[in-house]
Amino acid sequence: MFRRNPLLVFVNLPGLAIGLSAVLLLSVYLKHELSYDQHFQTKNNVLRLYNAVTENGNTTNYAICLRKAYTEIPSRVPEIRSATQIYNGWNTTAEFEKQKFPNVHMLFADKDFFDVFGLELIQGNADDALVGEKNVVITRSTALKVFNTEDCVGKVLNVSEDPVTVTGVINDLPNNTHFNFDLLLSMQTVHPENWGGLELYTYFRIDENADLASVGEKIAAANNELMKPWGEPFSLTVETGTELLADLHLHSAVDFDLSPKANLTHVFIIAGIAFLVLLIAMVNYINLYVLHGEKRISEIASRKSLGATQSTLSRLFFTETSVISLLSFVLALGLTALVQPAFARLMKSQIELSDMFSFSGILLVMGILTILILVSGAYPSYYLSKLNLVNALKGKSSKVKRKSTLSRIAVISQFSISVFLISALVIVFAQVNYLKEVPLGFNPGNVIGITNLNNEVRRSASSIADELSQLAFVEDVASSDHGMGHGSSGQGIKKYGDPGNFKGINEYRVQPGFAKTMQLELVDGRYFNNSEADKRAVILNEAAAKMLGPDVKVGSLLDMFDEPLTVIAIAKDFYYIDHPGAPIAPLVLTNYRTNVNNLYVRTKEGTTSAQLAQIDEVIKSYSPELIISKFQLTDVYANKYTNEERMIKLVTTGAGLAIIISFIGLMALSVMNVNRRKKEIGIRKVIGSTESQVVSELLKETFILVLIAIAIAFTGSYFTMHQWLQHFVNRVSISPVYFLISAAFALFIGFMAVGWQSWRAATRNPVEALRYE
Predict the structure, then answer these.
(1) Are strands 162-170 and 156-159 parallel, antiparallel or unpaired?
(2) How far is CA 123 from CA 177, 307, 599, in A?
(3) Rounded Cα–Cα distance for residues 236 and 54 (Å)
(4) Cα dist. 429→168, 354, 636, 739 in Å?
(5) Residue ranges of the ABC3 transporter permease C-terminal domain (predicted)?
(6) For 514-544, b where at least 16 C-beta lie within 10 A, e where not — what string?
(7) How far apart are CA 60 and CA 66, in angstroms?
(8) CB burial class (10 A; 0-12, 13-18, 19+) of residue 227?
(9) Which pLDDT does position 586 carry in this prediction?
């Protein structure tokens, strides 16, 4: 079979292998996403609380709750077996015997944490490991890194410069867990009873025999009562809901979580691309296999004349398709193993190739292979075994000689998919570039951020800023509690003396110099200064001023903590959390707290390694052992396009695979078409057709089919991308230019695939084609 038509090897084998590899990667990725939190024994008995908070018609779903959700709800709902809350900590530095371990992540939890999630300790007593202040349970990997042993219960570890006692060691949680930690500190360490806001993730383990739906309703009703006193002063409406632990990663309703939840858009994109690439490969294979039958007409007829039945011929064809499919599958395994690490990095998932060889993975792969053999073998088997015996013995078939409808379908489907992906890619690329050109409202260029500060640096932040300002290459220095481009605090605000309710607003706590260093553009007013009066001053963004009313301006008094705060400036809106595709929420900059978690240094131009070393030298003069963590503020905002950049890479990959398979398939079809029409071409040349006329005739049908495919693709692409663009506040208009670029590219691909074979056929000596007639 392979000797008779090498195109089946050089086209179908790699084409099917690429399609199967795409499906295999999808299966591994989906298995990873579906496995989140499934390792918890209690996954089907744990409910997590969330609050849907509505203000001015806009609803945000928060997984964080009041402390009262933990202290009061269990006593109201008897079906609750145990409960815990988690407070999301931060990356910090741990220290033991003067050895520092930076970037360890800590969480805080209540004493029943281990019962709620069905976890056991490998060292220590789970019942009291998180009882009391400044107790910590550490993971096995952290214990080995810090103490070189798991037997470390009772040892004292400094965390954020505070001593804590190790009370237990636990096995590391798998990467497919919606939360993770290196250190788990007792909740009493941070005294959450003093907090009045939404801060804590709340989980309830329900009795196994209880009706989860009914218990969930009881928990929601109890929490709604607790939330009324919290929401009413801010004119907020709160509706509580519960979510099953097993469903959190894929189906959580919350907008912010302990870890990024599954991006269903990416799942659908990957699934769609895998399906489309496999579809192109299968259409290619079936089409070429049927056309390959033209060379086997006499063989098929001879077999039938010698008594071969349709079932015998069908078995022959299914055997051949099985061989090609199995070889393609083996090649696909190699391709999958080769690209899996790059795919894992692209999706930022801890996916492993070994997942494919689980029981469910093997079943999926075998199912795909069986379907592939049945689908790819059924049509050729039926079509070729039905050839007319008399005509076939003459080496002719009226069915085969007619212009194949299947060939047309193949070309149209392949190029419809390819053009759809190309045009989608062009629009996504244009949208991302457009967002990057939208002004941020401040200038992040040449700003170096410094984090991982310790108490010595925090206390000396003002002096450090003064010294850094003396460096010749430094333009401005600032410090803040909240990090630019990161999360904010939520507060309630209203006009001072206004009897109305508070309105929700985001808060950045900063020090004098922050707004100037960030080069915020002011509509009116001035920046903070170091005066005592400015500790009771605020700067609003335009969105906040608009929310509070048209009479709020510089000099207005506002109420946020039951004392008057003076508006000293209104800043133009700037993107302080998200990128320009998202709306800008109201923000207030305050100056009442001296806590410093971030330093910012604006340089006059790009910094050299020597200049960065000078910055480190100044800071370390106050804390020699500090492990300094620096970053460019531009990188913080560049990273906000991660999802969009990932989508570009996914669509680019899909379009590339579709183009490659379509190009190879069309080129193979061109070879077969030219061979089938070589006598016609010879006759045309004998009766006077020029080479250009012959080429034009051979190209005409292909170009017509490609144009039909372009029209189909543009329709689908327009509606799909129009819906996608609605997710952005700032967005491009879908221009005909985007489609013209895609069309030109598709026509170029078609010309390259068909043109060379057409030119060879047109320039061939007609005697070669007619000598045997």
Answers:
(1) antiparallel
(2) 22, 77, 40
(3) 6
(4) 50, 34, 20, 13
(5) 273-388, 655-766
(6) bbbbbbbebeebebbeeeeebebbbbbbbbb
(7) 16
(8) buried
(9) 93
The one-letter code for the residue type at 524 is D
User: Strand, coil or helix: what is 208?
Assistant: coil
Element (H, E) at 377: helix 359-385
* Residues forming a β-bridge with 559: 494, 564
pLDDT band for 221, please (50, 70, 90 cuts). Answer: very high
**What whole-number distance in Å separates Cα of residue 212 and Cα of residue 220?**
12
Q: Does an H or E element contain 101, and which?
A: strand 99-109
What the block records as the tokens of 496 is 């001072």
Residue pair 592/535 in contact (Cβ under 8 Å)? The answer is yes
Percent helix, strand and coil across the chain, each to the nearest 5: 50, 20, 30
| Gap between the Cα atoms of 162 and 134, Å rounded | 8
Spatial contact of 141 and 169, defined as CB atoms under 8 Å apart: no
Query: Are 136 and 184 contacting, i.e. CB atoms less than 8 angstroms apart?
Result: yes
* Alpha carbons 588 and 579: distance in angstroms, whole number: 19
Residue pointed to by tokens 């604006």: 602
Domain boundaries, the chain: 1-36+268-402, 46-251, 447-640
- pLDDT digits 0-9 by tens, 178-202: 999 999 999 999 999 888 788 899 9
Q: CA 523, CA 514: separation in Å to the nearest integer?
A: 17
**End-to-end distance of the chain based on CA atoms, in angstroms?**
28
- Taking only the tens place, the pLDDT of each residue in 391-408 is 555 555 544 444 456 677
Question: Rounded to an integer, what distance in angstroms lies between the CA atom of residue 411 and that of residue 712?
Answer: 12
Q: Half-sphere exposure of 771 toward its Cβ, with a 13 Å CA cutoff?
A: 4
The amino acid sitting at 388 is N
Q: Which amino acid is at 644?
A: E
Closest by CA to 201, choosing from 179, 172, 228, is 179
Q: And the tokens for 57?
A: 């018609």
Beta strands 135-139 and 183-186, pairing class: antiparallel
CA dist., res. 205 & res. 118, Å (int): 9
Q: Token pair of 404, please?
A: 């194949």
Task: List, in sequence order, every beta strand (DSSP E) within 314-473.
Answer: 447-451
Separation CA 250–CA 29 (nearest Å): 13
- pLDDT at 295 exceeding the cut of 60: no
Return the number of other C-beta atoms located less than 10 Å from residue 18's C-beta.
22
Compute the distance between CA of residue 540 and CA of residue 515 in angstroms, rounded to an integer.
11
Query: Diameter of the chain by CA atoms?
Result: 106
Question: What is the side-by-side strand order in the sheet with 474-480?
Answer: 474-480, 598-603, 447-451, 629-632
Element (H, E) at 185: strand 183-186
Question: What is the H or E stretch that residue 278 is in?
Answer: helix 264-292
Q: Report the chain's mean pLDDT, rounded to a whole number.
A: 82
**Per-residue pLDDT tens for 517-572?**
999 999 999 999 989 899 999 999 999 999 999 999 999 999 988 789 999 999 99
The DSSP-derived string for 491-558 is EEEEETT--S--EEEEEEEB-TTHHHHTTPPEEEE----SSSGGGGEEEEEHHHHHHH-TT--TT-EE
